[in-house]
Each structure stands twice: as structure tokens, then as C-alpha cells.
């Protein structure tokens, strides 16, 4: 689990900083800044659940209040347990230790935990419709049942074997590698950008490519163009995280989540000062999308992945920084 830290701090890069721009985008008020119908439904259910627990289970509410840690901060309500913090875990508010969280078991399910509500609402609705259709004429159950299978398949979260080795860059997303280009990035400098297209059949969880500390989280609303169109990377809704990696002497990498024509909900629970391990999950994009990875370009970099290759988040090696070649800091 990612945790904020004060003692583990990779050397800072020489990138320019602007004090007027906060590292944590103030527009990011939840892990799903674009909102959504299912999110609104789940938040409404949370309000009803808290009212029920306070009225009929005050002992449970009291125990959970005694065990919670942190401070309320800017949170607009008083949470009862960890379920209430699902959408606000990136706000630096209350949290519960694993030993005090009665809902930690949900992390062990073979599905991405932040997609469980969609799985229940969308998948449950499709399954219910298929049963009703079967009562009229059994072949009618097939289309909604296939939709149910697709929803279940979409939110799956398979285990991944993460490669080790200092300087090993793993893929941040499942999908097809459609772009490898050299760019001059205003923050990173000379860089390589990898573009990954995710179809609705891919796992949509995002993972960190190199171990590091989050130094910036940026969100920008936008359009919902087809993720295969080149202009989608510029015009669609997107969220960037930048990390300083100890593997690169504190230099910065960027992972960008981009919505698509059908994938309209970016989820990211990373916040500034969180430390992530290589291959650790930090978010997802719901229902088809694009992910980009930008890393520093220098003589130590060896690109392994090839355009057109099918890649897997956290396990496919995209590139390696050779330890026997000196890594120069940004000028």
C-alpha cells in the first residue's frame, strides 16, 4: 500500500518549479474527479448507510471513530468507516489501519476494488435483464448476459509478477503499444513517450512504471474522442501524475491517464508525497482508453518494447536504464 513519507525522499530533479501552481491540483477533490452516475449513486447510498448505522448501530460507529486516524481536513461529512473514504482517499483525511478495517477483504477480490459499484450496478442490471428475457423466450437472454460477462471481464484484476532490477521500466497499462516517440518535455527535458491503447477487453487498472515519490497530480477536463485518434491525447479529459524515482537519481517520470469515447471516468488515488513501488496499482480508467508514459531519454536508456506489441501493466518491460552507463541530471 502506498503511504506518504517524510524519511524516504529521492533526490529532487532540477526541473523548474512554480510556487503559484500547487503540486496537488485543487481541482482533484476525489479519486474520480470527473464524477459519474454510479459514483453519485454510491455516494447517496453512503449517506443512507451512515444514517442507518448511527441510528441502529451506535456501538459500531463509536468503535470505528476510536480506531480511525488522521484528521477531517476539508472533508464535508463525518465518515463512519473505510467505505466512506473510498472516493476521498487522496485527500489526506481520515484512514484506518489494516488491522482496524473490517472491509480490507475486498482488496483480495479478483476485481479492481474501485470498480465494484459499477460491477454491481451495470453487471447486476444486465444479469437481471437476461433473466427476465429468458422468461419470455430463452434466446433473448443471450445479449444482456454477454453484456454481464463483458462487465465482469472489464473490472477483473489479475495478479501480476513484477520484474525486479534497478532501472527496469514496466508498462503502466494493459493494451497495445501504438506509439514510441522522442519529445522535448517542458518538465522532463529530452524524453521518450510511449502511447498505449486500451480496448474494452483489456484490464484497465494502471500501475506505476518505476518506484518513486509522487511530486505532482494534475487533472484537466476535456472531450471524449476515440482513443485511437491522435488528437485524443491533446483534447480528451486527462490526469497526470509525476514521480521522482530513486532508480533515476530523483529524475521525473510522468504517467498520463486519458479518457476515450466510451471510457469517461478516470480514477487515481495517488496524492503528493505518496511513495509507490514498481508495478503498484494507483488507479484505473473505466471502459476503454489511452495511457501514456514519459521517461527521460539519455545514453543509459535501452528501449525493449516494440510498437504493435501486446503489453501488460506491471509485468511487461518497456525499457531499462543500464547501470553501467552514467545517468546525467537534467541541465
TrEMBL record:
One Pfam entry name: PS_Dcarbxylase
Classification lineage: Bacteria, Pseudomonadati, Planctomycetota, Planctomycetia, Pirellulales
Keyword Lyase: yes
Domain of life, per lineage: Bacteria
Organism: Aporhodopirellula rubra
Keywords per UniProt: Cell membrane, Decarboxylase, Lipid biosynthesis, Lipid metabolism, Lyase, Membrane, Phospholipid biosynthesis, Phospholipid metabolism, Pyruvate, Zymogen
Enzyme class at the top of the EC tree: lyase
GO molecular function terms noted in the UniProt entry: phosphatidylserine decarboxylase activity
Protein name, UniProt field: Phosphatidylserine decarboxylase
Record region (Disordered): 1-21
E.C. numbers: 4.1.1.65
Amino acid at each position: 500500500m502506498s503511504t506518504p513519507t517524510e524519511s524516504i525522499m529521492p533526490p529532487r530533479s532540477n526541473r523548474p518549479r512554480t510556487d503559484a501552481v500547487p503540486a496537488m491540483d485543487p481541482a482533484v477533490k476525489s479519486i474520480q474527479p470527473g464524477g459519474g452516475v454510479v459514483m453519485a449513486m454510491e455516494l447517496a447510498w453512503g449517506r443512507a448507510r451512515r444514517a442507518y448505522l448511527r441510528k441502529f448501530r451506535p456501538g459500531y460507529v463509536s468503535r470505528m471513530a476510536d480506531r480511525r486516524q488522521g484528521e477531517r481536513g476539508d472533508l464535508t461529512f463525518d465518515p463512519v468507516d473505510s467505505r466512506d473514504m473510498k472516493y476521498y482517499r487522496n485527500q489526506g483525511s481520515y484512514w484506518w489501519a489494516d488491522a482496524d478495517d473490517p472491509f480490507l477483504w475486498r482488496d483480495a477480490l479478483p476485481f479492481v476494488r474501485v470498480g465494484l459499484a459499477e460491477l454491481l450496478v451495470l453487471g447486476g442490471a444486465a444479469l437481471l435483464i437476461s433473466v427476465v428475457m429468458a422468461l419470455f423466450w430463452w434466446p433473448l437472454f443471450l445479449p444482456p448476459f454477454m453484456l454481464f460477462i463483458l462487465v465482469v471481464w472489464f473490472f477483473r484484476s489479475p495478479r501480476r509478477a513484477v520484474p525486479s532490477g534497478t532501472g527496469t521500466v514496466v508498462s503502466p497499462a494493459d493494451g497495445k503499444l501504438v506509439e514510441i516517440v522522442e519529445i522535448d518535455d517542458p518538465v522532463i527535458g529530452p524524453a521518450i513517450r510511449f502511447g498505449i491503447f486500451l480496448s474494452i477487453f483489456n484490464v484497465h487498472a494502471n500501475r506505476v512504471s518505476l518506484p518513486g515519490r509522487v511530486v505532482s497530480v494534475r487533472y484537466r477536463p476535456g472531450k471524449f474522442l476515440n482513443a485511437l485518434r491522435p488528437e485524443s491525447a491533446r483534447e480528451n479529459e486527462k490526469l497526470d501524475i509525476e514521480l521522482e524515482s530513486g532508480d533515476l537519481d530523483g529524475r521525473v517520470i510522468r504517467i498520463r491517464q486519458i479518457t476515450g469515447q466510451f471510457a469517461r471516468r478516470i480514477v487515481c488515488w495517488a496524492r503528493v508525497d505518496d511513495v509507490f513501488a514498481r508495478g503498484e496499482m494507483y488507479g484505473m480508467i473505466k471502459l476503454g482508453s489511452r495511457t501514456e508514459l514519459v521517461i527521460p531519454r539519455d545514453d543509459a536508456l535501452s528501449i525493449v518494447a516494440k510498437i504493435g506489441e501486446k503489453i501488460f501493466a506491471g509485468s511487461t518491460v518497456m525499457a531499462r536504464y543500464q547501470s553501467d552507463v552514467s545517468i546525467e541530471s537534467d541541465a
